[in-house]
Amino acid sequence: MHIMRRRGWEIPEHRATPEAVFLNRRALLGGAAGLVAASSLGRNPALAAEALYPARRNEGYTLDRAVTPERYSGDYNNFYEFGTSKTVLPAANALKTSPWTIKIDGLVEKPFEIGVDDLIRKVGLEERLYRHRCVEAWSMAVPWTGFPLSKLVALAKPGSGAKYVQFQTFLDKGMAPGQRQFFYPWPYLEGLTMAEANNDLAFLVTGVYGKPLPNQFGAPIRLAVPWKYGFKSAKSLVKVSFVAERPKTFWEGLQASEYGFWANVNPAVPHPRWSQASERVLGTDQRVPTLIYNGYGEQVADLYKGLEKERLFV
Ligand code: MTE
User: Fold this and answer.
1) Which residue ranges have their beta carbon within 6 Å of ligand 1?
2) Cβ atoms of 62 and 4 closer than 8 Å
3) Sign of torsion, CA 311 218 131 56?
4) How far is ligand 1, taken at its centre, from the CA of residue 166, in Å?
5) What DSSP letter does each residue of 245-301 carry, written as one string?
6) pTM score, two decimals?
7) Which of 59, 103, 212, 301 would give a disulfide with 297, using CB separation of 3.0 to 4.6 Å?
8) What is the CATH number of domain 65-304?
């Protein structure tokens, strides 16, 4: 497992995790189930994937702020498939997440489909503390559980013609009332370059707060790309495709002047309708300055060398 060295803006974990309940739970479970290597569990097909939570925390990913309590992050969500308000939790209960398979196709050695639980057992899980910055200028900090996207890329074995990875959310108008709104370009689509997808920070998320993802967070599997605005982190994925052309993403299809392909966080580049200089931290009455690449510049700035002519921050 790749461990990154601690950077200046990081603080020790015990200061970044104020939730007593969360800590107690980890203390109880961490020694037993939490520290069992996922790879050894993978040999026991009878064991439910839920037994893999809470997963061992990768200490290479720490925060400069407190973890957002779940009562705030879990009740203030963007999930347009279930409506445009932030209170999608009740509607998202209709999302049936088991069984759930994900298709890997496009320019790969051999397309395949795999159940999310099988995938989890195959690649193993870890926990990482990540910041999340929405383009609407609010932010949160959460303990995601999942695995690096690069592990899925390795399983897919893309050919040299693959330049981008495209992520697709489920399409089911019966289950998701928002998808009956015909003016949205469903299904929700997002994309990354191959280099971005293989960056160590790009993470496929299957859990949060030490347990499987609640529906409103994008169960059973979503993306987390913490240096980009939150809309890049597509939820409830059913397909990952390796493609030659840059995908036309959901928000770009709706309003390209405001939401582009790159969408890297930059406090100096305002949204056409509001400033991106600062952000409201969920669960607090604080506004804090926004950081370039959401504070992850050291890990990702190199990805954009030579691309300065692109609209990197929209
Ligand atoms: N994915 C899908 N399928 N549908 C959505 O509406 N909203 C995006 C992103 N992924 C969205 C999505 C936006 S704008 C943000 S900020 C994050 O999900 C919100 O994630 P959260 O609800 O876990 O905070």
Assistant:
1) 77-81, 134, 169, 188, 217-218, 230-231, 233-236
2) no
3) negative
4) 16
5) SPP--HHHHHHTTTS-S--B--TTS-BTTB--SEEEETTSS-EEE--GGGGTHHHHG
6) 0.88
7) 301
8) 3.90.420.10
DSSP states of 208-221? ETTEEPPGGGTSS-
* Predicted local distance difference test score (pLDDT) of residue 13: 36
Query: Pairing relation of β-strands 112-115 and 164-169?
Result: unpaired
Q: Rounded to an integer, what distance in angstroms lies between the CA atom of residue 299 and that of residue 264?
A: 13
pLDDT digit string, tens, across residues 62-108: 998 999 999 999 999 999 999 999 999 999 999 999 999 999 999 99
Q: What is the DSSP letter of 228?
A: B
Give me 209's structure tokens: 């707060």
Percent helix, strand and coil across the chain, each rounded to 5? 25, 25, 50
CB-neighbour burial class of residue 84 (10 A; exposed 0-12, middle 13-18, buried 19+) = exposed
